[in-house]
Amino acid sequence: MEHVPVLLREVLVFLQEHPSLNKVLDCTLGLGGYSEAILSSSFSTKVFGVDQDDQALAFAKERLQPFGERFYPAKGNFSSLPASITSHAPFDAIVFDLGVSNLQLVDEERGFSFQSDGPLDMRMDRDEPFSASDIVNTYPERELADLFWKYGEERFSRQLARGIVRHREGKGLIERTSTLVEVVRSTLPAPVQRKMGGHPARRIFQALRIAVNDEISVLQDALHGVPALAASESLVLVVSYHSLEDRIVKTLFKMWREQGKGTILTKRPLTPSEEEIETNHKSRSAKMRVFRFENGRKGV
Ligand SMILES: C[S@@+](CC[C@H](N)C(=O)[O-])C[C@H]1O[C@@H](n2cnc3c(N)ncnc32)[C@H](O)[C@@H]1O
User: Fold this and answer.
1) Nearest atom (ligand 1) to Cα of 53
2) 92, burial (CB in 10 Å: exposed 0-12, middle 13-18, buried 19+)
3) pLDDT in tens, 216-268
4) Atom number of ligand 1 nearest to Cα 26
5) Which candidate in 175, 193, 246, 282 could, as Cys together with 200 as Cys, close a disulfide (CB 3.0–4.6 Å)?
6) Which of the listed CATH numbers 2.60.40.10, 1.10.10.10, 1.25.40.10, 1.10.150.170 matches domain 126-212?
């Protein structure tokens, strides 16, 4: 299993400029790509890695075992970090690489992908009870349409919501990713599908994933909690993959600057080079923003 870390070189360049990178908090450990690179680039840095996905955590733990006690993993949502992590604050750098990992995307049993057949699930944390199937099969038409519009910016949100409800009423529940894709394909006329650019179910899959994992609220909550975890000169790096996330990061960084908390180091977000996009197509929508705190807590 491989997940090619996105914008990794750029992340490392920022971190290497920090005068004493003792403790790094990786809020989205995933397969441990960032954490491994950070641990390898110094003999003294400790990395605290958090993920809400048990599979990712197990994978990263094994991968990063050679670093011994310099790596400390914990299960949790970055919006409400466990005390076992917050007790190590302040951190010299806090890193977020949002969205899903390849591990989640390629496992059809997780239901994230419109390209393979699996249960309509999409939970990053499988201890949570609420899945994509609950939304697709219980939301009224109007709420489905609003969700597809708000989180997927899907122009055909109303038609697709109507198609789903018709299917529910006529043929029964939509329990599989492939059934949802069929509903999309049979709802929208072929010329419309061709004009959509990309897979016609892409946007509603994104919308469902954001809703299932409450991605907008948890990102807002997490970023609001960041100043309390930051040391003086602490760096916050956020790699996001869609405009809704990027807008939240941009707005909050501006607010911190206006409050005199520090400096925005990326006037414009950094994006992957053409070369990176060519070798890793999934990186194409990535944007990284970086903030440096000036008045954080004193490090220990
Ligand atoms: C893009 S991957 C990170 C990949 C990682 N940087 C690497 O190089 O291997 C995102 C990871 O963040 C996790 N994640 C997303 N939202 C989270 C949240 N709110 N709390 C904790 N983990 C989250 C996902 O489960 C996924 O494993």
Assistant:
1) 25
2) buried
3) 999 999 999 999 999 989 999 999 999 999 999 999 999 999 999 999 999 99
4) 6
5) 193
6) 1.10.150.170
